[in-house]
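Example record

The entry below shows one chain as it appears in the dataset: sequence first, then C-alpha cells.
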Amino acid sequence: MKRLPSGLIRLLQYVSIVTIVAVVLLSVMMIGNVPTAHALPEYASRTGEGCATCHVSPGGGGPRTLRGLIWSARGKPDKVPLLPGVLIAPGVSDGAELFDIACAACHGKKAEGLFAIGLVGIDISKISVRSFIERGITRSGMPSFEGQFTDAQLTALVDFVSGLSNGTVKPLPDSYPLPPARFKCDAQKGCGDY
C-alpha cells in the first residue's frame, strides 16, 4: 500500500478543520437565530443623505451631530430634520478652523479627500464653492449648510476652500510645532520655593 505525501496529508487536515469550524458556526447561527445587523448606510439610503449629515464621523457610527440627535429623538423618520438658523460654529471666524469643523470629516484634514472629493488643486471658483456649501450636492451625499454659517463665516470658508483648490492656500499641517518646555526645577538643586 502506497503512503500519501506528507504535504497532501497536512492539506487534508487543514481543509477538514476549516470545514468543521464552518459547520459549527453555521449551526450556531441557525439555532440561535442571530438577527442580521443593519449598518448605517441603510439609514443613509432611507433618508437620502450621507452618514456625515447625522454623524461626526462621515463613515457613520460614533457621536451624532445636532441633526442626528434630533433625527434619533424623533424615532428615526425617513427625513433628517433641517436646522435653519442654527450655526455650526458660533464665534469662529477663521476659514481654516471652519473647514476643520464642518468639512474636514468628509474632505480630509488636508482636503485630500476621504469620503468626499479631494479639494486641493482642482480649481473651483468661489461662486461654485459658495453654491456647494449653501445648497449641498445631493447626488454625492454632501449636505446643505444653508443658514448654518454667518455671512462672514461663509465668506471666510469660501475663501479658504477656493484657495485650497487653486493653490493659493496651503493645506493644514499634520501638527503644529510647540516651543520646548521650560522647567523651573533643576535636577541638582531641586525646585526651590515658588
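Notes for this example: Residues 92 and 98 are 7 Å apart (CA to CA). The radius of gyration is 27 Å.
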